[in-house]
Amino acid sequence: MINEFTKIQWVQRVLWIGIGCQHGTSREFIENAIQQVCRSYHLASSAIAGVATIDTKANEAGIIELCHDNNWPLKTFSASVLNSVEVPHPSNMVVAKVGTKSVAEAAALCAIELNYCPIVQNRQDACSIKSEYCCRVGKMPTHERLLVPKQIFRSEEKAGSVTVAVAVCAIAHRG
Asked: What is the pLDDT of residues 72-126, one digit of tens each?
C-alpha cells in the first residue's frame, strides 16, 4: 500500500560502463572505481544497464563477480570491433597490449549501439552499423554518446588498474 510518505523513484537503466583492467584486478577495486565515477559525475548507480569490455576479459574474475553481484549483463567485443570505434582518447599503449586503441570508451559505445539496435543480427557488427534505424546513436557525435570519458584508477596498495568510461543510451519516448 502506498501512503502519502512513500516515494517512488523510477530510474531507467541507460548507462553502460566500459571497463578496461589489468589481469587479476579485484572486484572491489573495479566497483570502487565505478562508484567514484558515479559520485564525481552525479550518476545514479541504479541507472547502470550493464558492463562492457574486450572479449579477452570475458573470464576476468573481478568483472564477473561484480556483474553477478549487481545482476548486470556483461557484453564483450573483439579487439577489431573495438578498434573500429571513434574514441576521444585513443592509447598507443593499449594498442600494444591488446590490439585496439581503446577498451573502456569503445566498449561502452559498442554496448549502447548493441542495446538499441534490434535490427542487428551479427552482434560483433553492432558498432559498425550506422543506420537511422539505430535510434541515431551511431550518428550522434562521440562527445554526446560518451557521458564520461575514460577515467584511470591505480592503486599503490592493491594490484591492478582500472579504466572506466560511461556511455548513455538514447531514451526512446513512445507515444
From this structure: 999 999 999 999 998 999 999 999 999 999 999 999 999 998 764 433 334 444 4
Q: How far apart are CA 160 and CA 174, in angstroms?
A: 43
**C-alpha separations of 119 from 12, 108, 122 in Å:** 22, 19, 9
Cα distance between residue 141 and residue 123, in whole Å: 22
> If you search the block for the grid coordinates 566498449, which residue do you land on?
107
CA distance 108 to 53: 8
> How many residues does this entry show for the chain?
175
Q: What are phi and psi of 33, to 5 degrees?
A: -65, -45
Helix, strand, coil: what percent of the chain each, to 5? 40, 20, 40
The angle, 0 to 180 degrees and rounded to 10, between the axes of the packed helices 27-40 and 61-70 is: 60
